Amino acid sequence: MLDEASRIKDFPSLKNKIYFNSAAEGIPPLSVKDALLQYFQDKLLGMDGRLLHEAQWNATRELVASFYHLTPSEIGLCSCSSEAYNLAAMALHLKAGDEVVINDLDFPAGATPWLQEGCPATVKVWRHRNNILQFEDLLPLLGPKTRLVNVSLVSFLNGFKISVPHLVEIVRKHSPSLLAVDVTQALGRIPLQLQGVDLIISSTHKWILASHGGGLVGVPCAKNKSLTAPAGGWFNLEEPFGANRFTEAKSKPGAASFAVGMPNYPAIYAIRAGLQYIQSIGVEKIDAATRPLVLHCLEELAKLPIELITPTNPEHVAGILAFRHTKADVIHAHLKSKNIHLMGNAGRLRIAIHGYNTHENVEVLLQELKAVLKQL
Known about the structure:
Layout: H1 4-10, E1 18-19, H2 30-43, H3 49-68, E2 75-78, H4 81-92, E3 99-103, H5 108-111, E4 122-126, H6 135-138, E5 146-152, H7 164-174, E6 178-182, E7 199-203, E8 215-218, H8 265-281, H9 283-301, E9 307-308, E10 320-324, H10 328-337, E11 340-341, E12 343-345, E13 348-352, H11 359-375
Parallel strand pairs: 1-11, 3-4, 3-5, 5-6, 6-7
Antiparallel strand pairs: 2-8, 7-8, 9-10, 10-13, 12-13
């Protein structure tokens, strides 16, 4: 992943392509293809294959636990981050007078469950200033009625990276709130510091280089009582086929309650392979190799006639850089014509730099950006 030989071997689709869109869709290594094929071979065994599926499930929970710094019993696997947040909303049993804090740099999955008409809680929005979530702006939003504060470790919108230890300290000091952190734009790309977080959520098709169809949930066992989802199903229940199955339903506690039905085993095979690949390289090594590329690209972007929306302070930067331009669609089309792939949406362009990107990739991107901007 971090040298030309492994890049060509593990990611053959990148041979003639410069790819900066891992924040939307990661490019999986060939080992993920092998894992999906293994799922098919195991599925051919019918019911006998379920023991092999279960082994993959358990191994995947162990891997996620190692990344989240939790134990396997504190990990649940569901279908996506949106499902995880909706189940969390059920677990909270919110009532009138309760308050939930979201922010305007966040992805819809973590913000919209609390905005639905049926949610009785009051939603408060922590708004950014100069593309940064300032902690002094959070303080007035916290109080005795705050039930949940939700943030992303790294914002999908502009790449802003929040200090989780500082956030934990503030939330604990000023409210009885639970703290939920979405690590979708961080898992597999930067080392995680999640001590004190009550709910950890991630999707699986971005930086960890796996497939769609997964939601990785972490709930420390100390928070089981507060974060047990009262959902129907069977896989998430204590005795789904017991003698009282038509008179009562009791969820397994904590993270296990988020796995509400038949596991998405194809995705689980792929998730295990993606995480194993990242682990074999080492997140610290990936970050150490790519951070200089990110900071160099950020420094050069700041010199261009664009509206840079990523903070320039390195402590707030992870793997995403973003900017706006009135001719963003023209810029995006030009870059794609040069086989340079990044995200373009609603006047915003987003660059995501991962371990399979190189210094040469960044230089070509900057060269083509400068060229097209001169023409506008």
